[in-house]
């Protein structure tokens, strides 16, 4: 049921193991759904971006996506006044990261129950793109009609890749994507701007780009700046409507999202998650969510992870142990897993493509 273990090397991506963290503290991020209009309103007047090159095992060798610069997100927060800290906070030797700006400046990538590293791109998300690319057939609408969930999406690189493919289609694709991250600020600052960039770099934005001679080239291999105008927002909205792409965004805990999906009966054909099994105490909630998201028909769940996360105890062995533990069996949440791609195995995943009913 679960497929996992992707490991590759790539430059410019966060490879540091999560630092040892203090005991789990109560959740502070409330569960919420962020509407498309809300995320459009949260966009800054200008987004700067740089290319992210992702190695592939196919003949294409690599794919390049445009990704919002982290310093640009920091500048947005400062310009919006989030850098105005209280005097008492400034006097602290190590400021408490209670805001997105604090997350960016914090010495650790993880603050349990407050921030889970979503503002940065972690290498296993690139591995996930490499695997998903192996499922595609350039001559068919490979992910059309699918309901897709990315758990702990952070910068959303796997979903951004899928959307870049869907935005390149000439006809309706009828795809539904759900992206979840613990922090709403991550979805607003990084995830959604990256989706806007994926749309802009695709054929779906051709008509909009033709209306403005000052638009930057739709070339993700070149760093640039994208001005966010009302007409751009309208064109983006029109494109997702025309293509039949539905986008949903959720912040908060995995337990809350699992409860929500159960209450509305939402099921998915594909569930994706990367670098989310680093803390053992969070594994039952993750497994519950992935199980809740599954369809009754053949579907695919991909968990991209490192063998071991030093300092925090999680990793593949702990994930497998939890997946097959007595507690999970008693709760009806147990399952099996198979390694479909690893450091020593990167073949084209024909069997999983067939399982999803993707055309070849």
Strands, helices and their partners?
Layout: E1 2-4, E2 32-34, H1 36-42, E3 46-55, E4 62-68, H2 70-79, H3 87-90, H4 100-105, H5 123-135, E5 147-151, H6 157-166, E6 175-181, H7 184-200, H8 206-210, E7 224-227, H9 230-243, E8 245-251, H10 254-264, E9 270-274, H11 283-293, E10 300-304, H12 316-323, H13 326-330, E11 337-339, H14 350-355
Parallel strand pairs: 1-10, 1-11, 5-6, 5-9, 6-8, 9-10
Antiparallel strand pairs: 2-8, 3-4, 3-7
Helix pairs in contact: 5-6, 6-7, 10-11
GO cellular component, one term: cytoplasm
Family: Belongs to the methyltransferase superfamily. METTL18 family.
Subcellular location: Cytoplasm; Nucleus
Descriptive report:
This protein has 360 residues and is α/β, with parallel strands linked by helices. It has a single domain (2-355), classed as Vaccinia Virus protein VP39 (Rossmann fold), CATH 3.40.50.150. It contains 14 helices and 11 strands. Helix 5 (123-135) runs parallel beside helix 6, helix 6 (157-166) runs parallel beside helix 7 (184-200) and helix 10 packs parallel to helix 11. The longest helix has 17 residues, at 184-200. The model is unreliable at 4-11, 16-26, 84-97 and 345-360 (pLDDT under 50).
């Amino acid at each position: 049921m679960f497929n996992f273990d992707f490991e590759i090397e790539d430059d410019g991506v966060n490879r540091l193991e999560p630092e040892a963290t203090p005991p789990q503290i109560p959740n502070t991020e409330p569960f919420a759904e962020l509407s498309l209009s809300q995320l459009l309103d949260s966009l800054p007047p200008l987004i700067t971006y740089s290319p992210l090159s992702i190695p592939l095992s196919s003949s294409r060798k690599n794919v390049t996506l445009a990704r919002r610069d982290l310093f640009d997100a920091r500048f947005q927060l400062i310009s919006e006044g989030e850098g105005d800290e209280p005097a008492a906070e400034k006097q602290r030797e190590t400021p408490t990261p209670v805001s997105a700006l604090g997350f960016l400046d914090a010495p650790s990538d993880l603050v349990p129950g407050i921030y889970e590293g979503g503002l940065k791109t972690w290498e296993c998300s690139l591995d996930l793109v490499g695997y998903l690319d192996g499922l595609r057939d350039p001559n068919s609408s490979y992910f059309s009609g699918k309901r897709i969930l990315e758990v702990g999406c952070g910068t959303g690189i796997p979903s951004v890749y899928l959307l870049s493919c869907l935005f390149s289609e000439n006809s309706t694709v009828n795809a539904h994507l759900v992206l979840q991250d613990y922090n709403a600020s991550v979805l607003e600052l990084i995830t959604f701007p990256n989706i806007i960039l994926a749309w802009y770099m695709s054929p779906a934005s051709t008509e909009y780009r033709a209306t403005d001679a000052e638009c930057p080239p739709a070339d993700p291999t070149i760093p640039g700046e994208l001005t966010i105008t009302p007409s751009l927002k309208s064109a983006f909205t029109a494109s997702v409507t025309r293509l039949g792409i539905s986008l949903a965004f959720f912040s908060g805990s995995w337990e809350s999202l699992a409860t929500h999906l159960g209450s509305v009966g939402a099921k998915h054909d594909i569930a994706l998650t990367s670098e989310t099994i680093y803390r053992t105490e969070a594994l039952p909630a993750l497994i519950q969510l992935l199980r809740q998201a599954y369809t009754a028909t053949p579907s695919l769940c991909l968990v991209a992870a490192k063998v071991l996360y030093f300092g925090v105890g999680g990793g593949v062995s702990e994930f497998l142990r939890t997946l097959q533990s007595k507690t999970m069996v008693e709760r009806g949440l147990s399952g099996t897993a198979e390694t479909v791609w690893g450091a020593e195995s990167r073949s084209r995943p024909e069997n999983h493509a067939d399982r999803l009913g993707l055309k070849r």
